[in-house]
């Protein structure tokens, strides 16, 4: 795809939408390869007056004729005249002679893709003829459908910009089931898998000769839940996707209108039973909702514990005991804040900047006595895995509290929280977190700082965060504590 994009950008003299149209073709031409039972290659002129293969797709309905990737290769001498004729005449050209390689006989067709009167590229179709047998009705119908789509390409009618480009799981493929309609929406042909899919919905044993719209309408039990695009899909009027559900079975449908220069003469409808996929998606949604509810209840329980600790601290006559309970209350409240954030989203990563902004200011305010303490934050934490969020929030809470109570003591000052993302020598992503103050600086003996709070910090940094911690003097006065961790190791 990189070669495709670069070549188009550098060499093509395209008008508005031309490059996007070819991208849409390459994104959807697996459909044609499967219908044609053939390999497809996209050719574009190169500066040497030849052609280069910009893309290649193999069929999933039969074996490939190219076992090696041909993207980036120059066109063969025997194939170039055919491609030249297609480019010039702007019509489908078929090789007059059967071409042979070392293993098989091939039938080759060259199809120019024309938009606004200009040939943009040529697609060659390579089908193996070595297995000589009478083709089945399914094969004949599939090949006719492939021809109709390629013919529409020469008229600039396919691919259609209104076609779905979303990546929702369960998009129907040729092998899942194909139904061909006439201009009135009557089923001309339904593949065995297509018939089976509608039978699981409660349909009839045979679809041919019936109106697909009427059949579908008879299967609907609750019309309030019908996708509004369904009528236009089952009649083949619009190139959209839709779904129908009946008797616990979900069917994904995709319509591709067939047109010529004058009018729409039919449509293809691809169908796929996506019941199991939708059931699993619903299970995931249910599990996500359950996890969010668990986080919400844990947050409520922790807030209750914090309130109980606050009430108990007010009854304490010992100042030391009261401070200990208040510190425990703040730690519980920090954990509750993380669970509150997790209860509001389904992502595995937490937007830590949003979480820590509130917690940083709150930690400094709670630890502040009579002095004025300013807080400043620099850098961005970005998204962090949820299993890192709780210990890191606790570590920052303890370090900020320590900076206010012991670094600034009773003085006014500033506490900084700085986050820096980077890459180490081995190419792994790192996160460096610094908590700094402009207070009295570090004491001469480090062990004077080893209270319960700093013991908690050391334990969380080494065991939960898998990082390292360093205390040092801050340039300009005060203390700074730096934590280095690797978010990818969580």
Topology (elements, then pairings):
Blueprint: H1 2-11, H2 18-28, H3 30-36, E1 39-45, E2 51-57, H4 80-89, E3 93-94, E4 99-100, E5 105-115, E6 118-128, H5 137-154, E7 178-182, E8 187-190, H6 192-201, H7 212-219, H8 230-234, E9 241-246, E10 249-259, E11 264-273, H9 275-315, H10 319-342, E12 349-351, H11 352-367, E13 373-378, E14 383-385, H12 386-407, E15 413-423, E16 429-437, H13 452-464, E17 468-473, E18 479-485
Parallel strand pairs: 13-15
Antiparallel strand pairs: 1-2, 1-6, 3-5, 4-5, 5-6, 7-8, 7-11, 9-10, 10-11, 12-14, 15-16, 16-18, 17-18
Helix pairs in contact: 3-5, 9-10, 10-11, 10-12, 11-12, 12-13
What can you tell me about this protein's structure?
- With 490 residues, the chain is α+β, with helices and mostly antiparallel strands.
- The protein has helices at residues 2-11, 18-28, 30-36, 80-89, 137-154, 192-201, 212-219, 230-234, 275-315, 319-342, 352-367, 386-407, 452-464; strands at 39-45, 51-57, 93-94, 99-100, 105-115, 118-128, 178-182, 187-190, 241-246, 249-259, 264-273, 349-351, 373-378, 383-385, 413-423, 429-437, 468-473, 479-485.
- Strands 1, 2, 3, 4, 5 and 6 form a 6-stranded antiparallel sheet that branches.
- The radius of gyration is 34 Å and the shape is elongated.
- It is built from 13 helices and 18 strands.
- The chain folds into 4 domains: 2-154, Beta-Lactamase (2-Layer Sandwich), CATH 3.30.450; 174-273, Beta-Lactamase, CATH 3.30.450; 275-346; 363-490, Histidine kinase-like ATPase, C-terminal domain (Heat Shock Protein 90), CATH 3.30.565.
- 40% of the residues lie in helices and 25% in strands.
- α10 (319-342) packs antiparallel against α11.
């Amino acid at each position: 795809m990189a070669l495709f994009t670069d070549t188009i950008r550098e060499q093509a003299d395209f008008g508005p939408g031309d490059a996007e149209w070819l991208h849409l073709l390459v994104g959807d031409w697996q459909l044609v390869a499967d219908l044609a039972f053939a390999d497809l290659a996209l050719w574009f002129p190169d500066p040497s007056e030849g052609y280069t293969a910009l893309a290649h797709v193999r069929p999933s309905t039969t074996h490939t004729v190219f076992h090696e990737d041909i993207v980036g290769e120059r066109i063969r001498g025997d194939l170039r005249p055919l491609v030249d004729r297609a480019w010039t005449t702007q019509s489908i050209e078929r090789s007059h002679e059967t071409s042979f390689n070392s293993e098989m006989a091939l039938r080759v067709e060259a199809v120019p893709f024309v938009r606004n009167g200009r040939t943009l590229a040529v697609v060659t179709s390579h089908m193996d003829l070595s297995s000589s047998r009478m083709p089945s009705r399914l094969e004949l119908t599939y090949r006719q459908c492939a021809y109709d789509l390629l013919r529409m390409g020469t008229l600039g009618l396919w691919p259609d910009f209104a076609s779905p480009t979303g990546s929702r799981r369960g998009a129907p493929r040729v092998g899942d089931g194909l139904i061909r309609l006439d201009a009135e929406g009557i089923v001309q042909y339904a593949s065995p898998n297509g018939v089976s899919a509608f039978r699981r919905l409660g349909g009839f044993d045979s679809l041919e000769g019936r109106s697909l719209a009427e059949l579908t309408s008879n299967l609907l039990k609750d019309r309030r839940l019908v996708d509004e695009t369904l009528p236009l899909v089952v009649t083949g009027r619009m190139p959209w996707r839709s779904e129908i559900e009946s008797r616990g079975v979900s069917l994904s449908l995709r319509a591709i209108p067939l047109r010529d220069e004058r009018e729409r003469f039919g449509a293809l409808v691809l169908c796929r039973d996506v019941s199991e996929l939708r059931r699993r998606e619903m299970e995931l949604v249910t599990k996500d909702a359950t996890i969010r509810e668990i986080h919400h209840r844990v947050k409520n329980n922790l807030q209750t514990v914090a309130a109980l600790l606050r009430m108990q601290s007010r009854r304490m006559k010992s100042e030391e005991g009261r401070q200990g309970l208040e510190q425990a209350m703040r730690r519980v409240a920090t954990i509750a804040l993380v669970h509150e954030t997790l209860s509001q989203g389904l992502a595995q990563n937490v937007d830590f900047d949003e979480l820590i902004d509130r917690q940083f200011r709150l930690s400094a305010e709670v630890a502040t006595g009579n002095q004025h303490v300013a807080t400043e934050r620099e850098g961005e934490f970005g998204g962090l895995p949820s299993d890192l969020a709780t210990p890191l929030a606790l570590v920052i809470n303890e370090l900020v509290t320590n900076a206010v109570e012991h670094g600034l003591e009773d003085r006014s000052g500033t506490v900084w929280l700085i986050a820096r993302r980077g890459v180490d020598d081995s190419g792994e992503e790192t996160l460096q977190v610094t908590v700094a103050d402009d207070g009295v600086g570090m004491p001469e003996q480090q062990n004077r700082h080893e209270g319960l709070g700093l013991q908690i910090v050391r334990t969380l940094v080494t065991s939960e965060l898998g990082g390292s911690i360093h205390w040092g003097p801050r340039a300009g006065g005060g203390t700074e504590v730096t934590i280095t961790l690797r978010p990818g190791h969580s």
